[in-house]
Amino acid sequence: MPRPLQDQTLPGWFSNPVRLAVGLVLALHLSSCREETRVERATREKILLLGNGAEPKALDPHLVSSVGDSNILRALFEGLVTYHPENDSLNEPGVAERWESNADFSEWRFYLRDDARWSNGDPVTAQDFVYSYQRILHPEMGSPYASMLYFLKNAEAFNRGDLKDFAEVGVKAEGERVLVCTLVGPAPFFPDVVKHTSWLPVHRGTIEKFGKMTDPYTPWQKPGNHVSNGAFMLTDWRINAHVKVRKNPHYWDAANVKPNGIDFLPLESPFTEEKAFRNGLIHLSYSMPESLIGEYKALPDSPLHIETYAGSYFYRCNVTKKPTDNADFRRALAYAIDREVIVKYVTLGGQTPATAFTPPSEGGYQPPKVISFDPAKAREYLRKAGYASGAEVPEFTILINTLESHRNIAMAIQDMWKKNLGIEKVKIENQEWKVFQQTTQDLNYDVSRAGWIGDYVDPNTFLGIWVTGDSNNYTGWSNPDYDRLMRESSHLSDPAARYAKLAEAETVLMDGMPILPLYWYTRVYLLHPDVRNWHPLLLDNHPYKHIDLIPSGEGGSL
Amino acid sequence: MSTPYSSSSGEKGSSLGRDAWLRLKKNRLALASLGFIVLVIVACFLVPLLPGIPDPNATHPDLQFLGAGSSARSMEGRDVFYLFGSDQLGRDIFSRVLYGGRVSLTVGFLATFVSLTIGVVYGAFSGYVGGRTDVVMMRVVDILYALPFIVIVIILSTYVSAMEDWKPVKFLNELFGSSLWLLFVCIGAVEWLTMSRIVRGQVLSLKRQEFIDAARSLGLSQTRILFRHLIPNTLGPVIVYTTLTVPAVMRLEAILSFLGLGVQPPDASWGSLIKEGADLMASDPGLLVYPAIIFGATLFSLNFLGDGLRDALDPKSSKD
Question: Which residues of A touch B282 (CB under 8 A)?
C-alpha cells in the first residue's frame, strides 16, 4: 500500500517552543487520529531508523575511518570481543567466547566459539582473523587505521614494508579455534582495543572472488555479494538514500537479536536531520543544530539527550610554517581563547572547556590542568614570540570543514584573538570534508580545526597520535621526550604508574602546544521514546542487537 | 555649422537623453526605485562611517539572539544597542546588513562593469566586422554559453589563488583587502556573453544605416566609427540590460559565497547573511528577514528601474 513518507501536521518551521512542543507531541504520541508515520511503522516492524551523518565511504572494515561508517560496520560485523550495551569499558564475548593473557599482558589467547558463522553459513575461524589482519596491515592496502594494529609485534615494520614475511607478525592461529596475539609490550586494555572496527574480520572467499586481497573497492561490498559475521547482513545500499541491514539468520546469537533490521540514512545537515526527526522519519539523530538546543531542553519528556562523549575538539597548528612554528606564539593563541564563552554560548551542548588534550575519565586518567583563559599571560607570550603587538603578526588562516558550528567557533575565536591579542589578520577558510582532510594531511594549512574521538577507553588512544610519525599527527610536531615517555608508559602494567607517566607526557605535549585544545565533547542527539535499551555510552559504540523498539504512544510506559 | 542631429526646423532641439529623462520622470515606480537604490547605496557606503555604528564582526557571545531594538551591556562592560537585533555570536545585524550591502553592491556593479566592457567591445567588433570573423566570434560565445558557469568560476578562482605571490595579484589583493576582486572578475568574465549578443544585433542593424555610410564617406577610421558612432547608438538596450545584470550578479555572488568561493567569514554579503539566516529562521527569524527584505527590495528596484529605462529609451515610444 503506498503511503506518504512524512506526516506533515505543522508547517515546516515554527517560531517558538510552544509550537515545537505541540508538533513533537503530535509526532510522538497522538498516533491514533492520523496516518501512521514512517517511524511508527518502523517501530511496528522493529526496524531502527538512524540518521548517520555523511554517505559511507565503504562497507569494508579495512577502509573506513569515520564515526558514521563504523556505526554501519558495527551492525554488520562482530569482532573477537564486542561492546557491552551499558558501558564501553566492559567487554562482551563476541566471536571469542573467552580470552586470557600471560602475566604481563603482552600475549593474549582468544578462544573462538564453535557456532560463529558468516552470513553465508561458513564457520568463522581463527584463520579468518589472521587473514584480515594481514589484509589491513598490507602496505598495498593503504588502510587509514592500520596503525591501530601496531600493538601486534612487528606489525609496524610489516605495514611500512620493511618486513615482507607476515609470519613474523605477532598473530597466529592455533587450529581453527584459538587465536594468539603477541604484542610489542604489555597492554592490559587489549580486549578493549580489539573491539574497534579495524580489528573486524572479513570473509576470505568473498574478497578473493572479486579481486586480490589488497584490492580496495571491489564489488564485494555490494548488496548480494557482501558477506559479514555480525548480527545483521547487508540487504540494500543506495548512494545518498540509505544503507539497509537485516537480521543475519546464521549469526550465533540470532535468537537474542532484538531489531529485525536497521536503516542508516545519510543526513549530513543537522538542520535537515532535526526536521526529519520532527516529522517522524528517524528514530535517532546523529547530530543536533545548536540553535535549537535551548528549545528542546525546555520540553517536558524531551527527546534531546546530552551525554559525555570521549572526544576532544581542538585546533592543530602547523609547526613547519610561520607564524605558527613559534611555540610562544602558539601559547599566546591558546591562552587568549575564552573556552567558557565558547561552550556556554556557541556550542551550547554542555561541553567541558578543555584544560589539556585528553578528556578526563571518571576514576581513571586525569589530564593535567594546563590551559586556561589568561589574556595577560597570552600577551606576555606574544611579546616573547617577538611581536610587540598583535598588529605585527603576519596573516594566517584558520582552516575548517564546512559546517555551521565549526564556522561559529572559528569566528568567535578570531574575534577573541583580535580583542585579547590585537591580531587583526586572521582569515577563515572552509573546505568540503574530503578536501579538508587532504589539506590537513599535506600540512597545507596554518591552523586547522580537528576533533578526535577515542577508539577505546584509554588515554593511549588520544596521546598516541602525537608520537613522531603517527599517521594522525598532521602537525609536523615531534618531541623526543614525548616519544620516550610514551614508550616508557607502554611498558608499565600498573594503571596508576602508567597514568602518571602519560600525564607527564601530556604535560610535555601542552608545553610544546602543537595543538590548541578547545573543549571536550558531549554527544547531543534526539532519541525517539520508542527506542529501548539505549544507554548513554562514553564512546557511543552501541551494540545494536540489544536495542528494542516498543511503541511508546499506545500504552507503552516510559 | 550644424550636426546631423540638430533639428533644422524652429522646434527646440532635444537630445535622446533628455527625452528619456522626461519620460522616466513620468514613471513613478521607476523613479521611486531609483530613489531607493540611491538611498541604499548611500546607507551602505556612508552610514558605517558615522560614529556609533558597531563593528560588524565584533562578537558578544553572551548577547546572542537579542530582538530588534534591544540594548544590553556585554560581560566586558560595554553598552551595545541592536537596531535589528543580534545574531548567534551577538554581532549587530544592522551593521552586518550595511557592510554586507557594501560587498553585494560592489560586486554587483563592478562585475556588471567588467561584463559590460567585454561584452560591448566584443559584440560591436564582431557585428561591425561581420563575415567569417563574426561567425567565428559568435561560435566562441556559443561554446562558452554551453560550459557550466560554476565550473568555470571554480577553475578561474583556483588558478588565480594559486598565483598569490604574483605581483599584479598581490596588488589587487591589497587594494581590495582580500580576494574579493576575484569574485567580480570571475562573474564579469562569464556574464558578458548575453551582452555581446545584444550589442552585436544592434550593430548589425545600425551599420547599414545612412549615418554610418556618411561617416565612412567622410573617411573616418574604422575604430572611430566603431567607438564614436556605433557603440553610443547601442546605449539604450545596453543600459537596460545592465540594470538587469546587476541583480543577476548579486544572486550569483550569493551562490558563490555559499559554495565558499565568495566572501569568507566573518565578512558578510547579503547572500551569505540570508544563507545563515535561513538555517536559523526557526529560532530567530530576524536573522533572515532583515537582510532578505533589503536584498529583495534592492533587486526589485533594479528591475523596475531597468523596465522604466527600457520604456524611456525606446525611440519608437510616442513623443508627446
Answer: 13-15, 291-292
Q: In this complex, do A402 and B260 lie within 8 Å of one another by their Cβ atoms?
A: yes
Instruction: Check if the beta carbon of residue A267 is closer than 8 Å to that of residue A55.
Output: no
Provide the residue ranges of all domains of chain B, joining segments of one domain with +: 26-56+94-319, 57-91
Confidence of residue A6 (pLDDT cuts 50, 70, 90): very low
The predicted structure's pLDDT at residue B12: 59
Q: Do B61 and A430 touch (CB under 8 A)?
A: no
Contact B264 A428 (CB under 8 A): yes
B74 CB within 8 Å of a chain A CB = no
CB contact (8 A) between residue A411 and residue B59: yes
Q: Residue B97: which of B59, B35, B34, B54 has the closest Cα?
A: B54
**Which of the four pLDDT bands, split at 50, 70 and 90, describes residue A57?**
confident
> Comparing C-alpha atoms, which of A108, A51, A549 is closest to residue A288?
A51
Q: Give yes or no for residue B140 having a pLDDT over 80.
A: yes
Best interface-test mutation with B: which of A24, A291, A403, A431 has the largest number of B CBs within 10 A? A291
| ipTM value | 0.75
Q: How far is Cα of residue A150 from the mean position of the Cα atoms in its chain?
A: 19
Of the candidates A469, A498, A470, the residue with the CA atom closest to the CA atom of residue A485: A498
H or E stretch covering A243: strand A242-247
Tens digits of per-residue pLDDT, A455-502?
Answer: 888 888 899 889 887 778 889 999 999 999 998 888 887 888 889 999
DSSP B280: T
Helix, strand counts (H, E) of chain A? 17, 18
Q: Which three cell numbers stand for residue A549?
A: 523498539
B141 has a pLDDT exceeding 70: yes
Q: Average pLDDT, stretch B132-153?
A: 88
Angle, CA of A470, A461 and A189, to the nearest 5°: 125
pLDDT digits (tens, 9 = 90+) for A531-548: 999 998 888 889 999 999
Burial classification of residue A2, based on how many CB atoms lie within 10 Å of its CB (0-12 exposed, 13-18 middle, 19 or more buried): exposed
Cell digits of residue A282: 528517524
Q: Does the beta-carbon distance from A407 to B59 stay under 8 Å?
A: no
Q: Is the pLDDT of residue A323 over 80?
A: yes
The structural architecture, per CATH, of the domain B26-56+94-319 is Orthogonal Bundle (1.10)
Q: Does A404 touch chain B (CB under 8 A)?
A: yes
Q: Does B35 touch chain A (CB under 8 A)?
A: no
Does residue A18 carry a pLDDT above 60? no
- pLDDT single digits (tens) A172-187: 999 999 999 999 888 8
The pTM for the full model equals 0.80
Model confidence over A330-363: pLDDT tens digits? 999 999 999 999 999 898 888 999 999 999 987 7
Q: Hey, what amino acid is at B125? A: F
Q: Which three cell numbers stand for residue A225?
A: 555479494
| A548 strand-pairing partners | A532
Is the alpha carbon torsion for A13, A14, A17, A23 positive or negative? Answer: negative
The edge-to-edge listing of strands for the beta sheet with A171-174 is A96-101, A107-112, A178-182, A171-174
For chain B, the C-alpha Rg in angstroms (whole number) is: 24
Place of cell 566570434: B137
The answer, for A293 touching chain B at a CB cutoff of 8 Å, is: no
Nearest CA in chain B to A408: B89
DSSP symbol at A284:
B
The DSSP call for residue A26 is H
Element (H, E) at A190: helix A190-193
The residue written with cell numbers 511503541 in the block is A551
CA distance A503 to B224: 81
Amino acid at A38: R
Q: Which three cell numbers stand for residue A515?
A: 595543538
pLDDT band at B90 (very low <50, low <70, confident <90, very high): confident
